[in-house]
Amino acid sequence: MSVSSTGPTLFVLMALLSACQPKKETAPTVGTVSVDRRTIIVDAQATGSVEPINVIEVKSKASGLIIKMPVEIGSQVKAGDLLVQVDTRDVKNGYAQAAADSRSAQASLDVATAQKKRSDELYKTRIITTQEYETAQLALTQAQGALVRAGANLDLAKQRLEDATVVAPLSGTIIAKPVAVGQVITSATGAFGGGTTLLQMADLTKVRVRTLVNETDIGNVRAQQSARVTVDAYPERPFQGTVEKIEPQAVVVQSVTMFPVIVSLDNSEGFLKPGMNGEVSLLVDRRENVLAVPNDAVRSLREAANAAKLVGLNPDSVTAMVKDAQAKMAGGRASSGAGQPAGDAPAAQTVAIGTDVKSANAKGGGSGERRGGNGQAKVGNAQGRGGASGSAAPPAAAMGGGRPGGATRSRAGLVFVLNSAGAFEPRLVRLGASNYDFAEVLSGLKEGEKVATLAVAALQAKRDAQNDRFRNNSTVPGVQRTPAAGGGGGGGGGGRPPGGG
Fold first, then answer.
1. What is the pLDDT of residue 67?
2. Among 8, 66, 288, 430, which residue's beta carbon has the most beta carbons within 10 A?
């Protein structure tokens, strides 16, 4: 009886004790990737919508009833095609009346001209008086003026008759139609308010995209710069465009300062429609066939200690190496003279962790010393900033992919190179143009070398830290946790501070 009761009790105690024991730490998984050559494209990303370059509002100079409208929204028209026909009964009557007045004025002029000729002959023979002669001359002048007025009225009546027929001013596409057949419209010239808008049309063979670019990227954008637009309707077909202009007035969107940028596109095939949303990629810089390293493998100099833990190296040793390399570069610049070109720093000796890696060897299961090579790592003046990005994949603008005038900023970075002994050694590198994925290697690495990718290791280390905190904060029913040294008062203190009574 006693044996049967003792067995389950021992099993439960062993299970509880095993649950309370700390979990054995596992080394983070560190992957590697080869340093190779590739094309790095640095661009500024933004979103925008397609809009016509020039929208024309079609109005009629004639008022009246619309009796014919052969176009619809989306109709393709050419210059001179009929758009709207307004009822012409009133304007036709006005034209007929003006034509009759013109003929009457012409007849009056003919009579006055003949009368003037007779008056000239009679005045020479002294048959009529001077007053009668002047009266005939005045009648001729008045007839001439009446004919001019009648001709002007006839021309105006003709224009009103022609205005009743609205034709396309240019070739394009109908994009809006606010009126329909049977609606009475007002004249654009005779009515207050500009008259009735009949149609809106635009030439859609060339469109533009209006986008807002962040002020951090606007310094890399200039007129006539190449751009690529990808719309949601055709995600696999990018459209090439050109930056037409950069508007000077900033726009604040959700506390972010943006600048409108206009990108013109050729739409001769008619795929792009007004209102389409798309992503705009403005080409800032392009580097062909350059040595590149993934941004995941690069850490800023300030992250040396944390990065060293991920690859199983001693953080103090790596930090000391970084400081020593920075001191050597600073001393080299001070002694090299002022004639050195900007951005070119003296070569920095690549330092590997040697004898001070015993703890790392114990964690990684290795034995003996790890000795690194004596390769050279040339680091530019960006190291003075301690690594401008501070992250594995910084924005292109922060990385200095391309500045106006073709100048490229450089920065210092820290990578971990896999040596021939199968161990990682830290190395300072000089980086140039970079995008969200890769960074150009100016010096410090050779093609084919393998560098550590730290994203997976960082995530695993973060997850392990969270699990440790969870295990430390969790309690097992029936098992009392041992209080930390220097904790609260005695057994009956209930966790109150010492001296709390």
1. 92
2. 430
